[in-house]
Amino acid sequence: MSQILDAAWAERWLRLSAAVIAENRMALIELDRAIGDGDHGENMDRGFSAILEKLDAEPPATPGAAFKLAAMTLMSKVGGAAGPLYGTAFLRAGTAVGDATELDGSILAEALAAARDGVVARGKAEVGDKTMIDAWSPAVDAAAAAVASGADPMAVLEAAATAAEAGALSTDPLIAHKGRASYLGERAIGHRDPGAASSALILRAAVHAAQDAA
Length: 214
Ligand code: ADP
Ligand code: MG
Description:
Oligomer: single chain
Bound molecules: adenosine-5'-diphosphate, magnesium ion
CATH topology: Serine Threonine Protein Phosphatase 5, Tetratricopeptide repeat
Order of helices and strands: EHHHHHEHHHH
Strand content: under 5%
Distance between the termini: 9 Å
Number of strands: 2
Strand order of the largest sheet: 1-2
Number of domains: 1
C-alpha cells in the first residue's frame, strides 16, 4: 500500500520536497553563493512554499495533475535559471504520465526521462557541465536499468534517488560549462552545483513519499 504511486504519493512527494528544500534553504544558498549569485535556496523555497499553498487549496486528482501544478508554480515563482528548468521538468513529467491514476515503474522511468529531456531541451547542458543534469541524467539511467531488471516502482525510485545523489557529488571537481558558474572557470572546482544538489534532495523526497503510508 505504501508503494502505490498515486495522487496521494505525488502530493506527499511535493510536500516532502517543500520540507527538505526549506530545511536546506541555507545550504543551497551557500552552494550558490560559492559559484553563483546565492539565490538558489531562496528561489526554490519560495517556489515550493507556493506549491504547498496550491496543494492546500486544491489537492490534485492524479500524479500528472500534481506534476503540472508544480510546473506552473515553479515557472511563475522560482525565477532565475532554475525556475524554467524545474518547471519544464515537471511539465514534461506531467505530460508523460497523462491521466494515469497510478504509476508503475516503467511509466515512472519514462516520466523521469521526459523531465530530464525537457531540462536538456531548454538548457542544452550535457552530463559533466556541472548542472542539475549531472543529477538527473544518472537518475534516469538508473531508473531505466531498474525497470529492465524487473524492479518494483519503489526500487525504481530508490535507484533514481541514489544515482542523483552520486551525480550531485560528482559535480564537485568539475568546471562549469553552463549557467552562472561557467563564468568562474577553474574557481568553480571544489564546489557542488546547487541545482544538482536540490535535484538530489527532491528525488530522495520521492522515495520518502513512497515509504510513508498515507
Ligand atoms: P540563477 O543561476 O539564475 O541564479 P539558480 O541559482 O536558481 O538560478 O539556479 C542555478 C542552477 O541552475 C545551477 O546550479 C544549475 O544546476 C542550473 N542550471 C543553470 N543553467 C543550466 C542549464 N543551462 N542547464 C541545466 N541546468 C542549469
Ligand atoms: Mg543563483
